[in-house]
Amino acid sequence: MSSPRTFGIWANTDKPAVWKMLPEILNWGKNAGLEAWVTTRLQKEKPESVSFECPVIETAEDFKKLDFIISLGGDGTLLSLARAVSDRGTPILGIHLGELGFLAEVIDKDMFHRLDLVAQGKYSITERNVLQCSVSNGSNGRTLFALNDFVIDNGPSHRMLNAQLEAGGHFVANYKADGLIVATPTGSTAYSLAAGGPVVAPGLDAMVVSPICPHSLTFRPIVFAADEALSITFPDETADTLIDLAVDGQITESLGKDSIVSINSADYKINLIEFDDSNYFHTLRTKMGWGKRGEG
Asked: Which residue, of 25, 135, 178, 265, has the fewest CB within 10 Å?
């Protein structure tokens, strides 16, 4: 890859470690001859003890001015950044500050070694699928995007969800369950996995529908091609039913019983920075205990 000249920093400002690491990253960028940009949130919330003068990412179009952008936090921070970057193609380098971390594979003690590799152009780009969800909700319509998943459930009511799934115009099933998860391969190791869904390698063009606690043992997760068009409706629900649609676990949209939820693959992908020694299956084993038989 070509050596970058500019980079941005997107961070979870609620984490104290961010304010310790931010000046160090800015100093690294200066020494590497790179121009650093920060978000408006970093600019506004910086403590008095932290001082810097940088260009500010004021609009989403400013992402196009960056050769890469650092996500400083956990997987949730990276997910929110991915939605902000959207179809602008800016590569994301995830630096992990949380407890688990799966998407943000760089850890703080290894950070500057990895940043040096990026500055030298010694990195690669992996593309991750994004799901697009169009909601027809009475007179209102909205389009949403997710790197991990869309989750539909009955929200705070904790009632059973009655949902009908169609794929490519063909009836699939009437689900009676606590909810439905529609996940990308990236999201297959998140909520979908906890609900019994399969691990799907991130390079596959696919999406997974996993029921949450289905009220029938015959319902199992199903994998669809990424170019399939899914439609979810709620024909058996009553007028007072509360239905929630969650996007990457961070944004919630309220639906009515007459809503139509259409999900398909977005026409863009998210670019994540990887290195020669990046290993998806090693990450599965070390961070999720995948393949281990347990203690004892």
From this structure: 178
In the annotation, is 240 catalytic? no
> How confident is the model over 90-117, as pLDDT tens digits?
999 999 986 667 788 788 888 999 999 9
Q: What is the DSSP string of 232-291?
A: EE-TT--TT--EEEEETTTEEEEE-TT-EEEEEEEEEEEEEEE-TT--HHHHHHHHH-TT
What pLDDT is stored for residue 105 in this prediction?
76
For residue range 9-62, list pLDDT tens digits in order.
999 999 999 999 999 999 999 999 999 999 999 999 988 888 888 999 999 999
Domains annotated for the chain, with CATH where assigned, are 6-123+275-288 (3.40.50.10330), 130-267 (2.60.200.30)
